[in-house]
Amino acid sequence: MQSGVLVANSPTLFDRLGAQKPDALLQLIALCNADPRPDKIDVGVGVYKDSAGNTPILRAVKKAEAILLETQETKSYLGSQGDARFVELIKPIAFGEGASGDDRIVGVQTPGGCGALRLGAELIVAADPDARIFVGQPTWPNHGPLIECAGVRMVNHPYYDNQSHAILFDEMMSALGEGRPGDLVLVHGCCHNPTGADLSLDQWRALADIVSRRGLIPFVDLAYQGLGHGLEADAEGTRLVVEAADQALVAHSNDKNFGIYRERTGSLFIKASSKAAAGTVMSNLLGLARTMWSMPPDHGAAVVRIVLDDADLRADWRSELDEMCARIRSLRARLAAYDERLAYIGDQNGMFSMLPLSPEQVLAVREKDGIYMAGSGRFNVVGLSDDNVDRFAAAVVREMDG
């Protein structure tokens, strides 16, 4: 460039960019939307659906929104911590009632579980630029981009075999046995995404033991609490490893268990080694949040706060959440009973499981039957309606028969 004159053929800023690979799930959604078949089945997108195939707004949420509309007096900023009362109310749900007064655990509101994961990763790198985190495979596809983008080095290890439908627990523990003090371990708190295969309580205890013995730091992604076996049961593993660890991170989401997906409502909690250390952690969380989103969105957290602060609304939410959980378990039971090769689905938890189908077989059920799922064979169990479970199972079994 010469004195303000653009030299011919020199690349401008955005000409230097390379095209990015489209997100596979978003592509799948677009393909499904474009399919004109009225009986198509979408088990790719990860949202709860009722027996009619709709994603409802929960009764308690609608009532809380009405209260918010009538009582909210300002749209002023809340600050980088977000809704402090919301965070205070989520803390015992994630950690148990005894954690309410634990001043080693601090938290902030985040834009969904994704925001919590990314903020946690940024905090890790701020504390240790050379940090590494052990991650079981397969895992949620966005875990890698969210965490690695911050600069945390991922160390992959086996977790699940899709052909035998078994957790590779010995291989996992062997890998963690190589961990150094201060290494992190990414753990799905419940309802493992994409496999649905959760650790047993005995396996959680063994994990807590190795975390304690080797000085590892758990980073728990608790995104589906209440949709596996219930609100308390789904947090048991998280509580075991957090209690065993000197330090821990927990990314919590309310998008799923309150059905407020588009409101992006989450929180990040850090357990520090002392009250003083927790104060330092909190100052860093606020500083990092300020540079990322400044203030988190308010609406979802305000709704959750209103529900949890009102005994009647809280009870109604718990009742509807239990109904959602029961529907998922019922669908799993129907699939498991259809064919013995699908029996494993009944023993798994949450919204997702993986089918032992090749990408070619997944494409075949898409083309022949209008069934849309990820190429890995991951499908959303509760994406099925009551009247298409058998048709879905029949198509899957047909492909398994070859």
Task: Outline the biggest β-sheet.
Answer: 7 strands, mixed
- Superfamily (CATH H level) name of the largest domain: Type I PLP-dependent aspartate aminotransferase-like (Major domain)
Average pLDDT number: 95
Strand order of the largest sheet: 2-10-9-8-7-3-4
The backbone outline, from C-alpha atoms, is globular
Number of strands: 13
Class by SSE composition: alpha/beta
What share of the residues does DSSP label as strand, in percent? 5-15%
Write down the CATH class of the largest domain.
Answer: Alpha Beta
- Overall tally of domains: 2
End-to-end Cα distance, whole Å, is 63 Å
- The ordered H/E elements are HEHHEHEHEEEHEHEHEEHHHEHEEH
Unreliable stretches covering 5 or more consecutive residues: none
Helix content: 40-55%
CATH architecture of the largest domain: 3-Layer(aba) Sandwich
For the CA atoms, what is the radius of gyration? 22 Å
Describe this structure in words.
- The chain has two domains: 21-57 and 317-401, Aspartate Aminotransferase, domain 1 (Alpha-Beta Complex), CATH 3.90.1150.10; 77-309, 3-Layer(aba) Sandwich (Aspartate Aminotransferase, domain 2).
- The chain is built from 13 helices and 13 strands.
- It has helices at residues 24-34, 59-71, 84-95, 112-127, 143-148, 169-176, 201-214, 236-244, 275-292, 299-309, 311-338, 359-369, 389-401; strands at residues 41-42, 105-111, 132-137, 153-158, 160-161, 166-167, 184-188, 217-222, 248-253, 265-271, 352-354, 371-372, 378-380.
- It is globular.
